[in-house]
Amino acid sequence: VTFKYNGSTIVPGDQGVDYETFKRKCTDDVRLFGFVRFTTGDAMSKRVKFALITWIGEDVSGLQRAKTGTDKTLVKEVVQ
């Protein structure tokens, strides 16, 4: 699942099962958060892991970049 910005508000974005689709959303002019679920382990033990990916495109302004860092904490709280 992704969370993106609508103005200054963070809103739910897309969800899916394909990592390539997620990567296509990560363009130079956006900032977004992606919550990824994956399974790891061996034949005897499988574990589900989660990762929160923060994407800040190259064309995002410095002020928006700084705000993204503080917003990441809020996204973590909502997802947990």
TrEMBL record:
Name of the gene this protein is made from: Cotl1
GO annotation, biological process: regulation of actin filament polymerization
Function per UniProt: Binds to F-actin in a calcium-independent manner. Has no direct effect on actin depolymerization. Acts as a chaperone for ALOX5 (5LO), influencing both its stability and activity in leukotrienes synthesis.
Naturally occurring in which organism (per UniProt): Columbina picui
Subunit relationships: Interacts with 5-lipoxygenase (ALOX5/5LO) in a calcium-independent manner. Binds to F-actin with a stoichiometry of 1:2.
CDD domains: ADF_coactosin_like
Gene3D superfamilies per record: Severin
GO molecular function: actin filament binding
Protein name, UniProt field: Coactosin-like protein
